[in-house]
# Entry
Amino acid sequence: MATYAIGDVQGCFDDLKALLTHINFNSDCDQLWFCGDLVNRGPKSLETLRFIKALESNAITVLGNHDLHLLATAYDHKKPGRKDTFDALLKADDAEELFDWLRHQKMIHHDKELNITLLHAGIHPHWDLDKTLELAKEVETVLQSKNHINFYKHMYGDKPFHWDDSLSGWLRYRFITNILTRLRYCDTQGKPSLNAKGSPGSQASHLFPWYEIENRKTQNDRIIFGHWSTLPHAGKSSINNTYAIDSGCLWGGLLTALRIDVEPFEYFHLHCPGAQKPPDQYKKKLEERNKIKE
# Structure
């Protein structure tokens, strides 16, 4: 049995299928870990969700910001944004079944046997792994309850900026969600800057990638994450015990599979045609990343 962590798919279903062929994925015994953002921006979000749901116990999924945005659009009856590609999914006969399955997925997954943690974006530097799992469970409980629609109504926004154990209600849930699904940069006190999205070196001088904060409490834990396709090392190598695997499939980069049941971990890649034109600041990084052999 092989276990692979898969980078952000974002509805690029054909690329996902091609990558699974490339790694000889066997749905009878192999397992896939998806790091979130299964949907949106790519052309086949519906097919992606149907396929991963059908894998049942052979797939583990954590939720990303685009997955939560889909749920908010569906349940809170928001009009899809200009860049969203939800139409086929929202109109599908099995849409309700798919949405119900999606909101019952995890915010974070920890495998004790492999000693690996999977999440979409990042972990607050002041949270240890046990605390992060507990806080994630709080959000999962709300998402899986009858109160989940109210969660979407309060989910959006960058505030509060600082963690406090006394935070309660929707502000508490929003902060936890923002850290787990949107975090890239923060300052040394853990204040996130959720609008900073570029590669390291482009940020303000007081900001650092979350995994580089000195003395962060998860520095001895192996963590796999996606969300940050502009990282130069994404899909290539680890930094500080973290493995970034969103290598820009949506933009014409790579779709990465990281085999994690072997030591050392093994990277596999598929060169993707790109469902959307990449941002200008990302083009050079794509050129470098696409030099990786499959």
User: Anything to note?
Assistant: Residues 129-143 form the longest helix (15 residues). The chain has one domain: 3-289. The mean pLDDT is 95.
